[in-house]
Write a structure and sequence with these properties.
Chain lengths: 252, 381
């Protein structure tokens, strides 16, 4: 997320690339970084049949390296990528919502529908679902699991990139700003259940609603705590999430 | 097999020899970089991270002072050299940097430490190693009890929070306040002092803490709207306070905002934009519109170097280097001598106000109240 946001910052503010192109450029660079991580690190790890713990440590290592690289180049101070005038948000049902939040919701809905259609109706989408279900069987049937995983990484990273740019436009950015959002995403995924985009949507809404109710009725300090309490409750009583699909160790 | 074994042994020996060579190299290098004719002053500053704006301003003030001082005798021959370490706005990194300055650079004094957490973490080491720690910006009230070797040439945040509390009640007529504060040593210190002041004057306060570095304050603003308070005191760092002001305006919430010294920052103005208009902050006596010749010269020189106006942190940091240079001029170079000389300072008239250290290594300076008008901090008349 931070990669795409900082790339957008370079394209839009330093190279003066038009907004839409800078936005697409940020998402593409995020996808490229995702693909490089997959090809250079995760693919090699799969070849060596390493444990899920090794994947977890490797991904944390990649995060720290990338975050430090951003810190070294851009510094750790907050960068502003939305320099429009601060104005009162749009009033909807008594609540105020900013233009960038409206844009974020529209983008999220469009991408959610688009990804669903892609996964359900395109050959590549069906292959992604097949490989996530059983990669060994896919290889036997002639679907290259490595190629499909690479495509999935590219799409996933680009989607995370879009989220990163939109979040940074809303709250500005630092090199570490995407980490909390990523953790909330993982919790929503576990709650929603693996392999179900509708479950994921339900999980996200549950986490976000619980966080804001906690902030309103308790204290903002409880926002994170409530998220992880829900996660623990789900892991104990409904470990397969809303969807009921089995969670593989490697996916955790 | 024997060959493999000897190769392994050879590699081990090579690694050990390399380490010895590197360590001895560090030692020799350390000796080389500190010739006798230079006077080293350690500097630990948040040049990156959440406190970067304050750290960079402090560094600018110090560098300007060094440039001026090194043109004058006796420092034109024995230059003052700043050994600057970046704390990355982290107390643990500041501690590592401070230890490095003591153990490797052997500095008798380290200046800077703009964040209270950094001062409070490094203070026990300063006491143990008998090295002077001189902060030019940290606000926590706990610093006054941090030890004999700890000095600060800005007033405690406690004094500043009380001043703004008094001003808000007696001059502006507010009675009911909300406080949004960071869970850091700095934020807690300001909050405690402000709450005590308001309660003593018969007002009421509701509290809204947040975790340091938070980006989303909308849940707090939603809760604040229900409280119907007309003034909100903010105690935190510039990036956080800028976000609070920005998101408040977006949520159509516009009470009178008051802020701790953390609110005086160009970064805050950049983030909050028009939403910063009318913000009232407690500040050190440094006045950008002063008629004092010395201060005017400092402001002009600072602007010529850095293309921006200085703030009270730049001024205090500039003063700190001049204070130390005066001590060195008297031939006092050890940490004990510097410490004793600092306690004896009774009338240093600097650009950041008059410095007189009390028995806690603290200063008493008059507090000024500033307000943001057209994205500038203007003294509140």
């Amino acid at each position: 997320m931070a990669i795409s946001a900082y790339t957008f910052f370079v394209f839009y503010f330093i190279l003066a690339v038009p907004l839409a192109l800078a936005f697409i450029g940020g998402a593409i660079i995020a996808a490229v970084v995702g693909v490089l991580c997959e090809s250079i690190i995760y693919k090699q790890m799969r070849k060596r049949k390493l444990t899920s713990l090794a994947y977890l440590i490797a991904s944390l290592g990649i995060y720290i390296i990338l975050q430090n690289a951003i810190s070294l180049y851009f510094g750790d101070d907050a960068k502003i990528i939305n320099n429009s005038e601060v104005v009162v948000g749009h009033q909807i049902f008594g609540a105020y919502i900013t233009t960038i939040q409206v844009v974020t919701i529209c983008f999220s809905l469009a991408l959610f529908i688009g990804v669903n259609i892609f996964l359900c109706f395109s050959d590549t989408g069906k292959s992604i679902r097949a490989v996530s279900s059983n990669s060994a069987l896919c290889n036997i049937y002639g679907i290259s699991s490595n190629r499909i995983i690479l495509i999935a990484f590219a799409i996933g990273s680009a989607l995370a990139g879009v989220a990163g740019i939109l979040s940074a436009m809303d709250t500005n950015m630092t090199p570490t700003f995407g980490f909390n959002l990523l953790l909330y995403g993982v919790v929503a995924m576990i709650i929603g259940g693996i392999g179900s985009t509708r479950g994921l949507l339900a999980g996200s809404l549950l986490v976000a609603t619980a966080q804001h109710l906690a902030a309103f009725y308790l204290d903002t300090k409880w926002m994170d705590a409530v998220t992880y309490i829900i996660l623990i409750l789900f892991l104990i009583w409904k470990p397969l999430g809303f969807s009921g699909n089995r969670l593989k160790k490697v996916e955790v | 097999m024997k060959i493999n074994l000897s190769v392994k042994n050879g590699a081990s020996v090579l690694i050990i020899v390399s380490f010895i060579f590197l360590f001895s190299g560090c030692y020799v290098n350390n000796k080389k970089t500190h010739p006798d004719h230079n006077i080293d002053i350690g500097v630990v500053l948040s040049l990156t991270g959440k406190g970067a704006t304050y750290g960079i301003n402090a560094k600018n003030g110090m560098l300007l002072a060094v440039e001026e001082i090194n043109k004058l005798p006796p420092f034109n021959k024995n230059n003052i050299v700043l050994i600057v370490e970046d704390s990355n706005s982290s107390a643990s990194v500041a501690l590592n940097a401070f230890n490095k300055l003591i153990e490797i650079n052997h500095v008798p004094v380290a200046v800077g430490f703009v964040l209270s957490d950094e001062v409070l973490t490094c203070a026990p080491v300063a006491e143990k190693k008998k090295t002077v720690l001189f902060t030019t910006a940290a606000g926590s009230d706990k610093i006054k009890d941090a030890g004999d070797y700890i000095f600060r040439n800005r007033e405690s945040g406690d004094v500043q929070a009380k001043a703004i509390g008094n001003f808000a009640i007696n001059k502006l007529g507010y009675k009911n306040f909300a406080v949004i504060y960071s869970n850091s040593a700095n934020g807690m210190s300001y909050k405690d002092a402000f709450v005590k002041c308001v309660n003593d004057l018969g007002g009421s306060v509701v509290l809204f803490p947040y975790n340091e570095g938070n980006l989303n304050y909308r849940p707090i603003i939603d809760k604040l709207k229900k409280t119907k308070v007309s003034a909100v005191y903010l105690a935190g760092l510039d990036v956080e306070l800028g976000q609070i002001l920005k998101q408040s305006k977006e949520q159509n919430y516009s009470p009178q905002f008051l802020a701790s010294a953390g609110g005086i920052s160009t970064k805050l103005l950049e983030i909050a934009g028009d939403a910063s208009e009318g913000l009232i902050c407690g500040s050190s006596p440094f006045d950008i519109s002063t008629s004092n010749q010395k201060t005017k010269h400092f402001i002009a020189s600072y602007y010529a170097h850095y293309k921006q106006n200085p703030d009270f942190i730049s001024a205090n940091s500039y003063d700190a280097i001049y204070i130390l240079a005066n001590i060195y001029k008297q031939g006092k170079f050890t940490s004990a001598q510097i410490k004793n000389s600092l306690y004896k300072i009774k009338d240093f008239d600097g650009v950041g106000g008059v410095t007189i250290f009390d028995s806690n290594g603290e200063v008493t300076k008059p507090i000024s109240i500033v307000r943001v008008v057209s994205k500038k901090y203007i003294p509140y008349k």
